[in-house]
Amino acid sequence: MEIKLGFGAVPKPQYVFISKEPDHCWYMLGEDERRIPIYEKALTGVITGIEVNKRVETRFGVVEKTDLYILADNPYIIRSGSESYFSKSLLLSLDILTSEQLRNLLTIAVSPGESNVVFCNIYDPVTYRSIGVSWDGHREIDWQTLGQKVSLKIKRIHDLNPDKNQSQAEIVNNITTVESRDVFIAKTDTYLAQLNWTPEQGKDYLQQRYGKRSRLQLTDTEILDFIDYLRLQLTQNCPT
């Protein structure tokens, strides 16, 4: 996220709200409280926190909300009713995710259901896989306890990363880099298996080509070069 010098907007998180409409499922509010539709169905970023059963004063009185904090191109807060299906499906998904997954980029998507219902689906933006949840026995779930459990898990993750001087842009960029390298390494695993290379063959090639014995030691440029080489070998070995 680039910091703009000089005059500009007040640097505060942008609230995003949930509502099932004919052509969109979430929206923001303008300064005049007018609804601004968001037609995209998904928001990708890093989850930085969650507040559950938060008492909020509205024109209808005090209501309980769930606020999900997510850092993307800007900081956002996704606000939904604590008793809504969106909030409940969000908690079910976050409960399934491991601490390692919660440190990485995630995609929060809206999924319209029947009547006025909107569900939340969470995806891994690298593998495109959704986090499947089960609604079996959901009527017996203590949602307040589940919310506190999820909130504590996310809080512990960020308490273990105490680098307060790291900018928000650096956090996202670092996670993106790690995600990309994981994908590259996985791709080389696939190609090496298809070529029937032994671990020693791979190490010998890395030593001769790059002067290194491990793919983890390769730079981004080198690992991309290695992927191109393996792909070329597969093409040449493929029967015509």
Task: Walk me through what this model shows.
This protein has 240 residues and is of the alpha+beta class. It has two domains: 14-159, no CATH class; 168-237. Helix content is 38%, strand content 25%. It has six helices and eight strands; from the N terminus they run ββββββααββαααα. A hairpin with a 2-residue loop joins strand 4 (42-58) and strand 5. The termini are far apart. The model is unreliable at 164-168 and 174-179 (pLDDT under 50).
Structural class: alpha+beta
Radius of gyration: 22 Å
Please give the domain count.
2
Low-confidence stretches: 164-168, 174-179
β content, as a range?
A: 25-35%
Number of helices: 6
Overall morphology: elongated
Mean model confidence by pLDDT? 84
Query: Tell me about the biggest sheet?
Result: 8 strands, mixed
H/E series: EEEEEEHHEEHHHH
Helical residue percent?
A: 25-40%
* Widest sheet: strand ordering: 3-2-1-6-5-4-7-8
Termini separation: 49 Å
Number of strands: 8
Summary keywords:
single chain, 240 residues, alpha+beta, 6 helices
State the gist of this model.
By secondary structure, the protein is an alpha+beta fold. It has 6 helices and 8 strands, in the order ββββββααββαααα. Strand 1 and strand 2 (26-29) form a beta hairpin.
How is the topology of this model organized?
Layout (H helix, E strand, L loop, with lengths): L13 E5 L7 E4 L5 E4 L3 E17 L2 E11 L3 E7 L3 H12 L2 H5 L2 E7 L5 E6 L19 H17 L8 H28 L3 H12 L9 H18 L3
Parallel strand pairs: 1-6
Antiparallel strand pairs: 1-2, 2-3, 4-5, 4-7, 5-6, 7-8
